[in-house]
Design a protein that fits this description.
alpha/beta, binds iron/sulfur cluster, binds FE2/S2 (inorganic) cluster, single chain, 6-stranded parallel sheet, TIM Barrel, binds 5'-deoxyadenosine, about 350 residues, globular
């Protein structure tokens, strides 16, 4: 092996320490891991993340059905195609009947989680969302994740009582200045407070961030991992930023897929027993992104359960994967892909292992 191809002793020692005691890594050490670029060092990082994933969360890959029930949004995030100023996008809202039908399809395919996702759409009041949650729980034995953006704590408490099990709200970036630059309608502090409130209310909580926002640095990304370590989230989703032409960031460069894999791997080493999805954005930029993500630390995938023709209109960015495929087709496709990396699809809800450990201290 030539000198260029070998692993620097410092990096070797750091990856070994991350594998054994990743929770203890400093911000500087996390940044250093994210800076790795040589193929042998990356291989070592992937192996350490894969080993840790096996130890901490096992061989199952869990399916979460993503049901995008409204693409109306009152916010104006600079990167997002659903932003309120994007008047070129046709808007839709699914009826309760359409939502229940889509949940029925998930249930028949043994996908035991539905993620109810929407823009921040005030049309759905606390009352209407509570009655929707109750209607789903009445007919189906399925875990419900809400991903509906900001809601006051009193509403979050009411949703929990009405049957919501989990809540997903990405902090997007842990750099407050960067957050402020791209989110005119909210602050990072409020996001973080909502994540804390959700934990207190007994939700399984998911956060996440974007990779490759203009101006974002490797230390910003290290801070993303450190923030979710501190918040002790149950799930952490990382996806590359994909510029949407009808937004203010339309001409920016997309986020790097290789940096996204590094974020997945380092997050696994630092956060240990957390759920980590391969995001649709990653698989949109790279055809085998799911397989690579699953062998570099991830253990979740979110097949799209939104019925046609609405699926195409949930246009966070263009050319989203699986736009023309049915849920049934995607279920089969994912089964094959999961098998191809020697793993199994989880049976049941795939409740957070962290939650189980929180409930029964050992
Ligand atoms: N590229 C990648 N991800 C995006 N999101 C929104 N717009 C984009 C984009 N252009 C992500 C945000 C949000 C999630 C629902 O989708 O991180 O939290
Ligand atoms: Fe709305 Fe979410 Fe898009 Fe922001 S990222 S504009 S809150 S849908
Ligand atoms: Fe949708 Fe493969 S997961 S076609």
């Amino acid at each position: 092996m030539s000198k260029e191809e070998s692993v620097a002793p410092r990096i070797h020692a750091l990856i070994e320490r991350a594998q054994a005691r990743g929770k203890e890594l400093s911000l500087t050490e996390i940044t250093e891991l994210l800076s790795i670029t040589t193929p042998p060092e990356l291989d070592l990082l992937w192996q350490a993340a894969d080993w840790t994933r096996r130890q901490e969360v096992g061989e199952e890959i869990w399916l979460r059905g993503l049901l995008e029930f409204s693409n109306v949004c009152r916010c104006n995030c600079f990167y997002c195609g659903l932003r309120r100023d994007n008047t070129l996008l046709p808007r839709y809202r699914l009826t309760e009947e359409q939502i229940l039908e889509a949940v029925g399809r998930l249930s028949r395919l043994r996908i035991d989680t539905v993620v109810l996702q929407s823009g921040e759409d005030p049309y759905f009041t606390a009352e209407s969302l509570m009655s929707l949650l109750q209607a789903i729980k009445h007919s189906y034995d399925i875990a419900i994740t809400l991903s509906i953006g900001y809601r006051p704590k009193s509403e979050l408490a009411a949703f929990r009582r009405a049957g919501a099990d989990r809540f997903l709200i990405r902090h997007e970036t842990a750099n407050p200045d960067l957050y402020a630059a791209f989110h005119p309608d909210s602050t990072l502090a409020d996001r973080v407070q909502q994540l804390r409130d959700l934990r207190e209310l007994g939700y399984e909580v998911g956060s996440g961030c974007l990779v490759g926002l203009p101006g974002q640095t490797l230390s910003d990304l290290a801070a993303d991992i450190a923030l979710v370590r501190q918040l002790d989230v149950d799930m952490f989703g990382v996806g590359p930023f994909i510029p949407h032409p009808d937004t203010p960031l339309g001409d920016a460069s997309p986020g790097s897929v290789s940096l996204t894999y590094k974020m997945i791997a380092v997050a696994r080493l630092v956060l240990r027993d957390v759920h980590i999805p391969v995001t649709t954005a990653l698989s949109t930029l790279e055809e085998d992104g799911r397989e690579k993500g699953w062998t570099r630390g991830a253990n979740i995938v979110m097949p799209n359960a939104t019925p046609a023709p609405y699926r195409a209109q949930y246009e966070l960015y263009k050319n989203k994967r699986c736009i023309d495929d049915t849920l049934e087709h995607c279920r089969g496709c994912l089964e094959r892909r999961v098998k191809s990396v020697g793993r199994v699809i989880g049976q049941g809800r795939g409740t957070s292992l962290k939650l189980a450990r929180r409930a029964v201290p050992v």
